[in-house]
Write a structure and sequence with these properties.
Distance between the termini: 19 Å
Number of helices: 7
Shape: elongated
Order of helices and strands: HHHHHHH
Helix content: over 70%
Largest sheet: none
């Protein structure tokens, strides 16, 4: 049984693990929401982009399971369980920190990825139903038109009007064109890129913040494990 200041460490560690369990659930939910949110825009993004939310879900599940070791170890004052918890938490800390750094370094690739994918899919608007839907959803959600503006559609399809998704609040049976009052003149490239980068910065900051909190948890766990080991050694010495 730990005593004195280490008793406080024990209960603080238990509290930290409850927080870890909650953050694990948050990671899972956020990762799933990002996957669902950008599913309609999958035609504009490379596979590596979806690795981040999948990694968030994996980390969330891992954090939730690891917090179980920490809670059990703190309550039962089990030395080996607390050491296992500390090692696993350090691995998660390294993984989150690495993912945050990689995400920050990869932010420059977003522009090139979107430029390539938007150019490649725009020409398929009239022939591919999935691409057609993706462009309509993108232009409707972001109130944009084309890659850099309405003229992009005129270059590709000079004989047709603009897609109806380029105009918001369009009356029924009315076609969208560059002279429409409700036409969106801004391009989608800038808006989608900005939205992705803003969310990436927020998620990166949250991930690094949680990782630093977990580092504090590792320090508490190591202090408690050391105290328990010292208590056991004292008991064994006394018994002999």
């Amino acid at each position: 049984m730990v005593s004195g200041g280490m008793a406080c460490v024990k209960y603080l560690l238990f509290l930290f693990n409850l927080i870890f369990a909650i953050t694990g659930i948050v990671f899972i939910v956020v990762g799933a929401l990002i996957l669902a949110m950008y599913n309609d825009y999958s035609n504009f993004m490379d596979n590596w982009f979806f690795a981040a939310p999948v990694l968030m879900i994996v980390v969330g599940i891992t954090v939730f399971l690891v917090s179980f070791f920490g809670c059990c170890g703190a309550v039962k004052e089990h030395h080996c369980m607390i050491i296992t918890f500390s090692v696993l938490l350090l691995l998660i800390f390294a993984m989150e920190l690495g993912a945050g750094i990689c995400g920050y370094m990869m932010r420059n690739e977003v522009g090139r990825m979107l430029q390539t994918r938007l150019n490649n899919t725009m020409s398929l608007y009239t022939s591919d139903q999935k691409v057609h839907k993706s462009w309509d959803v993108l232009q409707h959600d972001f109130k944009c038109c084309g890659i850099n503006g309405t003229s992009d559609w005129a270059v590709l399809f000079p004989n047709i009007e603009l897609p109806n998704s380029c105009c918001h609040e369009m009356p029924l049976n009315q076609k969208c064109d560059s002279n429409s009052v409700t036409v969106s003149t801004e391009g989608c490239m800038k808006k989608l890129k900005s939205a992705i980068e803003d969310k990436a910065i927020i998620l990166g900051a949250v991930g690094i913040g949680i990782a630093l909190v977990q580092l504090i948890g590792v320090i508490f766990a190591c202090c408690l494990a050391r105290s328990i080991r010292r208590e056991y050694e004292t008991v064994e010495t006394t018994a002999h």
